[in-house]
Give the backbone structure.
Amino acid sequence: MTTHPERCTVLYESFSDFTFDRPADGVLLIRFNRPERLNALDRKGHDDLSRLWRTVSSDSDTRVAVITGTGRAFCAGGSIHGNLEHVGDVDHYARVMYSARELVYSMIDCDKPIISAINGPAAGAGLTTALLADISIIGEKVRITDGHMNIGVAAGDHAAIIWPLLCGLARAKYYLYTAESIDGPEAERIGLVSKCVPDDQLVSTSLGLAEKLARGPQDALRYTKRTMNHWLRAAGPIFESGLALEMLNFLSADAREGLQAFAEKRRPRFPSAT
């Protein structure tokens, strides 16, 4: 298949918080590209990430996608200050819920294999992207955590649909309840990610794997992905319930205190625990 680099510009020109390259035939390299903000996403960035995978699916020049971060972070999720401004805003969190839902289902439904090269901190939509990728590769010095408990909201979005399948229900509950951070080797050991490699080999390893898959039998790969992802589709009601309850938490006094404490770099004093 002939690769058409100019189609990167045409297809992806509206995704302003990302960069796109074609390092090899059939391989699309995507980078979160707001390094001055640890690649955190604003509302447009969240919406773009949610529709990105539909575009990848329709991109005839892409057989495998690799996503990583620019700079020292993968993607730090959304803005804590933005969330703090909207605590109690039902309409806002209804929109957030639908955007988060679309991100998860668009990754599940994307017919191209997705590889995440987790080069640094990942939170919120960033952690969703990192762990919902078909193959996740993390640097050995990278630490990740699902920090929902630290801000007083349920770990409802991607965690409910994928963590128990990756590392088992007992470990999923432990790490989601405690919000403890997990380093690369431990993430690999418990099955939360596919593979851990030295940090300086992360991108080359991910691209090497992408090239291998891009040379493979494409229908067989896509049909295998579709079949395997029925495990995730079957968990759809769990995911949607958890997501709705997370959004409900964002209307609460606990969320206001958790977000305020995070912004002020202090330990939260949750009203529900007093």
In short: The mean pLDDT is 93. The chain is about 50% helix and 15% strand.
